[in-house]
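Students often ask why we bother encoding 3D structure as a string. The short answer is that it lets us treat folding as translation between two languages. Here is a chain of 438 residues written in the first language.
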Amino acid sequence: MIELSALNRSTSVPEERQQGRTARVAYFVSHPIQYQVPLLRRIATEPDIEMTTFFSSDLSVRGYRDAGFGVEVKWDVPLLEGYKSEFLPRAREADTLGFARPLNWGIMKRLQQGRFDVVWVFGYNRLVNLHAIAAANLLRLPVILRAEPHLHSHTRSTTKLLVKSMLMQVLKCSVDCLLSIGDANDLYWKHYFGQDIPMYRMPYAVDNDFFRERALQAAPHREELRRSLGLESGRPIVLYASKLQSRKRCIDLVEAFIRLSPGPGIDPPAYLLIVGDGEERASLEARVRDSGLSNIRFLGFRNQTELPALYDLCDAFVLPSYNETWGLIVNEVMNAGRAIIVTDQVGCHYDLVRDGVNGFVIPLMDVAALSDRLRRLIEDPSLRAAMGENSLRIIQQYSFRQDIAGLRQAIGQVVPGFRSLAITSTIATLATPGVVRA
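And here it is in the second language, the structure alphabet:
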């Protein structure tokens, strides 16, 4: 038996690995997504997985006006480097994505030309994804599906739920294997697809190394950043970083923070930094002006490479959203070792935020509960520090290492001869069907 610790990228491929076959994977996703690109690069280093990513749109590469942020967005990280990708032919291009926007074609032909072994699709709520699944079915190619919903992500009428259940049964017959992003997603698939379909854990993760290293690099310059923002030394900092939309419920955080004031117009002993932009910014700023407080600051949109320094600067992070299927920014902040507060409608709370351990989970729109948890963190530095250490420990179990393990097992389930259990330098823990936590 080969020891995991004995393997690294310079080690020759073991004989038993050579006997396994290479899997040719066609991956379909809407557009280059800044969260996914590092994972795609990592998959490209697996010597027995040859994957081509097919994008429906190029909006994130060319720059676009994000409706949620309300500003022009062009990501400051490379989105097309380090992995093989193609843009599908398209019509009806726009700065937003919809069920049939853009309209793509040529999927069947490309699958035939590429002689793929398996089709992997991210999401099922767009026409191009359903097109890819249908083409794979016609070509008798197995389909792996990964999507992010959970049972509480939308409120629907009884009629809509019935229609959805029928449509999901059709989808179930078209899919061979599922990849679950977390506990809430796991329950979702079991609800609609039952217990029999193979399902492997591929947890929602970010590039932990990137965010951890950037936060560490920012730490020596923390006070310099504090001064540049006009913040007094020694005061705790609460951070919000997301779109300023109604479903993000930033207003609840503002109201909870205002309640910490010891009297009208008197600042609480902490700062609230609001990073992001969007349709609700004007009303939020008006509420802050009405409060008379001076320690709630709006920093506007910040690009991805700017965020780790703010994660390092803060003492606690809050995401008070509803209809939040996961909340990957929580992963990012946890890599800086910070306490987290989320609502029970943020999908990642099932996996990442352990109430009382590395943060708090509060009921949606419960301003009083949010204010109470903020007060506890602001008044207790040792609690903040302990929760931050626990965040850093927990997030290590939600990494690309686990993602690769889950993907390999899914491919091994549907591609005969592929060694899903082949040992690589990245696999320390293998995902298995029915596992709830990585």
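Translate back mentally: DSSP finds 16 helices and 17 strands in the chain. Keep this in mind for the problem set.
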